[in-house]
Amino acid sequence: MPRTIHQTTLSKQRIPNGCRVTLEFRTDGDPVPGVLLLPDGPEPASAALLLHGYSSRKEHLADVGRGLLAHGIASLAIDLPLHGSRSDPLQAQSLRNPFQIASLWRTAVGESVLATRYLAAHPEIDGERLAVVGYSMGAFLAVQLAAGEPALRAVALAAGGDLPIGTPLAGVARMVADPLRAVRKLHGRPLLMVNGRWDRTVSPEQAERLFAAAEEPKEIRWWDAGHYLPTAAIDEAAQWLATRLATA
Question: CB-based contacts of 168: which residues, under 8 Å, 6+ apart?
Answer without folding.
Answer: none
